[in-house]
Amino acid sequence: MLPWALAFALTMGIAQLVSGSAGRTGALVIAYVALCGRTLSVVVETFISVFTRGHRFVAVRILQNHGLRPLFMIGALIALGDALNSSRLTDLIGLDLASLCSVLANTLAAVLSGRFILNFKRPIKHLIRNRPYSHRRDKGSASEVIRVVGGLWHVPALLLVGGSLLAIFVTGGDVGTALARSIISAALLVLTLVVAGLLRRHAEKRSKRRRQSEYRRRLERFGYALGHVLAWFAFAELSLQVWGASLIGIGTQGVASVRIGQALLGIGFTILLAWLAWIFADTAIQRALVSSARSRGRRVNQARAQTITPMIRNVIFATIVIIAAIVGLANLGVNVTPLLAGAGVIGLAIGFGAQTLVQDLITGIFILIEDSLAVDDFVKINGHMGTVEGLTLRTVRLRDLDGIVHIITFSRIDSIHNMSRQFGIALMKIRIPYDMKIDDAITLMHETARALRQDPMMRHHIWSPLEMQGIHAFEDGCPILRMRFRTAPEMQWDVSRAFNLLLKQRMEEQEIDLGVPRLSVSMEGRGGGRLDGSSEWGEERDAAGRDPGEAGVADPAGETNARGASPDPGT
Fold first, then answer.
1. Residues 6+ apart with CB under 8 A from 143
2. Sign, Cα dihedral of 15, 20, 23, 29
3. 467 in helix, strand or coil?
4. Is 237 contained in some domain?
5. What pLDDT, in 10s, does the model give residues 421-440?
6. Residue 284, Cβ neighbours under 10 Å: how many?
7. pTM
8. Domain count, the chain
9. C-alpha to C-alpha distance for 426 and 266, rounded to whole angstroms
């Protein structure tokens, strides 16, 4: 910087010795422009050199290597624009040409400033935010303000650039007044951003609290959003007052202004009320969905939620929007009576023309709300048993055990047998051999059940010990034992098959035959008395050498009818 200052002083000294001329004036302008550009770059370089420690070193090096030359150009152009407004140059080159060159120089300086802000937004953000750890661990309001300013510093800077351009092209080059207004607007913007950041930080702290009702959480979010709106409204009002306008002033002067102000106020209140109504309605829908699922001991079904929740939310949202729009039009002075009458006629026509469709939709809505069906449930509907593959507001798509897909409308459903809820029951009826003791059979069943519950493939599906319910009935002389497991939903058939397989294997190991039908055959003489040679299946041959299945009754001649029927007495 010292050589530049010495060169400028030498130029000024020589200019004092030389008589006034165009060359002398040009030399002074060039020296002034160069010195101002270098001064700006040196001041910025000196300022950022303070932040060379820690994590800021990389950002400082980027600014030193790539940012000083654009700063020199910006400072030089600003100085040139200021010099062209001097009386000496206007007398020398003319007022119009001097004004044109000044506008071009100021415009180019503003454009370069905006480009510099956008190119070096991130390094400057790091200079502001990256502080020592002892300061960064502090979570107070000051840290939040620094964080907000570091992330949004370019916004007020670009606002200043925009104000300068506005002053150049609108106010005829009155840069001083426009720049002062831009600085005030930028300060208001920074203040608004800080307030918005503090509100957001406080809202984040509140949102982390547990055991808070959904209504309260959403109402607090509404309050914070309203606070943001009020903060930005205050910024807009104060900024407009700085530039000679006002939002509050609308509606205070003239009949038309009063009507516009009242309409805007009514529309604003309508929007707030519609917003509150939507919050309460949407929260009620979510709470109803979750509470109905919890009351049944289930998690929230995603298919059900994805099917019915968007539809209900869209219907309620559209209703609120339509009502708010009608109220807004009424605030603007529009006669909404024909609109309401037309909507009623259209709704009546749709209701009469699509009764079946409306019935399907209404029935489907109630089925989905009650959570009677869900995708992947195994159900029986109207005699068709299978897995639910899809649900819409009107139909259910069911694939049965043969792979056939059945599309059933909700209005045609008479009853729903859902086998996928809470738990399943594996009910088994086992025939016991007639010659096996019942206590031994019960012991065998319990041992088989315990072994099955230790099977790694089945133990997670069996939710209870074997429940022995006793002898269900007698069939062909064999007792039928009835027992059951409580299983996971839809796993009762797998558990039953696994139990039967393991029971069969154990009976084969112990050489126990399954209970088969038992038939007793007796032989009677002609007088009705029972013969001594009666037998049962499974015994040895009788004295006549006949198998038990060939046993019959003896005739008077002492012969036996192998068919087991008495001959005709007359033969």
1. 135, 136
2. positive
3. strand
4. no
5. 888 899 999 888 888 888 98
6. 13
7. 0.47
8. 5
9. 66
